[in-house]
Fold Aldo/keto reductase.
Amino acid sequence: MTSTTAPAVALGTWAWGDSGEVGDGYFGSELTASGLREVAEQALSTGFTLWDTAAVYGMGRSETVLAQALKGYDRGDYQLSTKFTPQIAGDGDDPVADMLEQSLDRLGTDYVDLYWIHNPADVARWTPYLIPLLRSGRVKHVGVSNHNLKEIALADEILGDAGFRVEAVQNHYSVLHRSSERAGILEHCREHDVRFFSYMVLEQGALTGRYSPAHPLPEGSSRAAVYNGMLPRLRALTDRMAAIGDDRGASAADVATAWAIAKGTTPIVGVTKVGHLDGVVRARGIELTGEEIAELEALADAADVDTRGSWEHDMER
């Protein structure tokens, strides 16, 4: 999936793996089948067609719920992106194919447009398993997620020997967490026409401007435990993002997404409500100036917070 064929924004369904019960799930989201169906209908009618999920999101629940939301639409009307996670691999002869088959079954399809190695447990071990999946057509394009520059290069070399290549990279990247940029991964992607997908551009809601010490993230959720203590230090940044948004009829969240687009990446924005799609539309239309980008990055650096996930290793090693 090259820079020219990827959409401006992908839609994330990490939170769709939550059970819907308050306090039960990473995000603490309350989701309904009818509500998510409405999100899918609005997304497709607005031209957002790439959905990102993973076998590990709710241990299959996200894929199942996504398939239900897309039921009845022609398969050519949307693209599916899902992931092989080595940490939950089975012990069969071909764990990657096995996990893909389970994902295909849950997604109700016979191919995925984009398949990822989710975490770099052992690049030399897992990457070769992608080759027969590409040859069979069950996987159209492949990418690597949470890999550093050395690991990306090794995966590309392994695939290259078979006539394929790493076509996409998906890493945590936000104005608060720019390690992939500092490590030269964004530059590598630009030079090799590899699409960089940025996830957690809103830092699980902490950069939306909706939350503050007086109005923290939902108690009992994993994101609350990570971010609520940081909210006082993020205030100057989110206030400035809100002010930039006000001038354009947009929100702080829209500005955070627009920043990721301005940096040449494809943000994966989590959508659980129709209103989230309105924000994605606004973000796509925002053009930040170089001065605004520099100001936001300076405020982010001044906040001095570490939002690296427990599953991520240091990209700058």
